[in-house]
């Protein structure tokens, strides 16, 4: 029997029904998620909207997954902040016109960005992931304090931060409430939501938590995005042309075996993790798809290859939702780490489009009033 990938959701069924039918919460002040979810329409991965006049400052921009999603949603970039040298080179390689700041976020001064509409980013995941031992506030890589400081400096209309689902674990509830309360003092309503990249056309089971903060005057117009219900392409069909590029005779049989979406791509960190597809459990999941997860290779298998093939960086990038013309700077390990840690562009685009609708709709409402 074929497995069915299910999207994780924080809500119980009665709560889900109450919120979707009433389109409001009975006691929003008691919830960590004050907004409802509205069905969306999937658009092409490479599709780009006309720029809408909104600008964002992207924090911890990495290889540009979230930044690309914002661009596709019609939101311009006032600047992108990233510490990793290879990732900065990737951003400049693909978008020479972007203003990329190779800088530690803890000491980055946001004064020059006052008036920017959105502060967005994907903060380091290890402080809240099981693999990173969930040290939370005790982890030097926890950058939420830096984000709060920059929001105070810049006072954007909206904040959007992506992180791993581990941040929703019970052990971090006090910290989540602390973040919410700090932003509330600055005049923002905030919420967290667990969603899955596969709901937005990404061929991967990649649950991610998105944090959104909106200034009070914009908060009522926001809704969370929801996928259109169409399943994403299985790995075999998604990667068939790349896997067959060197004439591998066994590619058709492999495609038939790889008939499900991918498990979560794991990028590792500078402290841990190399160019492989994750720990033992993840590699076993890849093996059921006929993929050897012990490493990344430079090229697709040759005509007479036998065994389970390994993926290339380009293959993993496609599974992450990057367009094929997006290039990654650096050697194999550096490039794979950038890809594996990225926020899939189609996922980021879906959230960014709802932010765009919220902010532009609120602007029209104020002008009409």
What's the CATH topology name of the largest domain?
A: Rossmann fold
Q: Specify the helix fraction band.
A: 25-40%
By CATH's scheme, which homologous superfamily of the largest domain applies?
Answer: Vaccinia Virus protein VP39
What characteristic shape results from the CA principal axes?
globular
Number of strands: 11
Q: Largest sheet at a glance?
A: 7 strands, mixed
Distance between the termini: 57 Å
The secondary structure category is: alpha/beta
Q: Order the strands across the largest sheet as they lie in space.
A: 4-3-2-5-6-8-7
The H-and-E topology, N to C, reads as HEEHEHEEHEHEEHEHHHEEHHH
Overall CATH architecture of the largest domain: 3-Layer(aba) Sandwich
Query: How much is the average pLDDT?
Result: 84
The portion of residues forming beta strands comes to 5-15%
The CATH class designation of the largest domain is Alpha Beta
Q: What is the CA-atom radius of gyration, in angstroms?
A: 20 Å
Overall domain count: 2
Oligomeric composition of the shown chains:
single chain
> Would you identify the regions where 5 or more consecutive residues have pLDDT less than 50?
1-30, 128-136
Number of distinct helices: 12
């Amino acid at each position: 029997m074929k497995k069915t990938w299910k999207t994780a959701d924080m809500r119980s069924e009665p709560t889900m029904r109450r919120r979707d039918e009433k389109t409001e919460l009975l006691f929003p002040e008691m919830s960590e998620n004050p907004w409802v979810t509205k069905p969306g329409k999937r658009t092409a991965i490479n599709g780009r909207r006309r720029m809408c006049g909104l600008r964002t400052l992207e924090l911890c921009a990495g290889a540009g997954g979230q930044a690309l999603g914002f661009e596709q949603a019609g939101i311009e970039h006032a600047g992108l902040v990233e510490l990793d040298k290879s990732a900065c080179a990737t951003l400049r390689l693909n978008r020479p016109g972007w203003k990329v700041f190779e800088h530690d976020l803890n000491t980055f001064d946001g004064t020059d960005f006052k008036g920017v509409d959105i502060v967005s980013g994907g903060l380091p995941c290890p402080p809240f992931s099981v693999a990173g031992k969930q040290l939370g506030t005790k982890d030097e890589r926890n950058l939420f304090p830096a984000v709060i400081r920059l929001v105070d400096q810049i006072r954007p209309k909206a904040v959007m931060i992506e992180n791993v689902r581990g941040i929703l674990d019970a052990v971090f509830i006090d910290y989540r409430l602390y973040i919410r309360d700090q932003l509330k003092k600055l005049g923002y309503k905030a919420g967290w939501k667990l969603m899955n990249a596969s709901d937005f056309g990404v061929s991967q089971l990649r649950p991610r938590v998105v944090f959104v903060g909106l200034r009070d005057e914009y908060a009522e117009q926001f809704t969370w995005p929801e996928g259109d219900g169409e399943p994403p392409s299985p790995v075999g069909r998604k990667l068939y042309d790349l896997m067959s590029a060197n004439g591998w005779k066994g590619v058709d049989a492999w495609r038939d075996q790889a008939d499900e979406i991918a498990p979560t791509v794991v990028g590792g960190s500078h402290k841990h993790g190399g160019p492989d597809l994750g720990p033992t459990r993840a590699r076993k999941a890849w093996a059921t798809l006929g993929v050897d997860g012990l490493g990344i290779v430079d090229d697709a298998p040759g005509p007479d290859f036998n065994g389970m093939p390994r993926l290339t960086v380009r293959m993993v990038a496609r599974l992450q939702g990057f367009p094929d013309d997006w290039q990654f700077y650096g050697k194999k390990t550096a490039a794979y780490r950038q890809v594996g840690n990225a926020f899939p562009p189609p996922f980021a685009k879906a959230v960014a489009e709802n932010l765009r609708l919220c902010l532009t709709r609120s602007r029209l409402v104020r002008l009409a009033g």
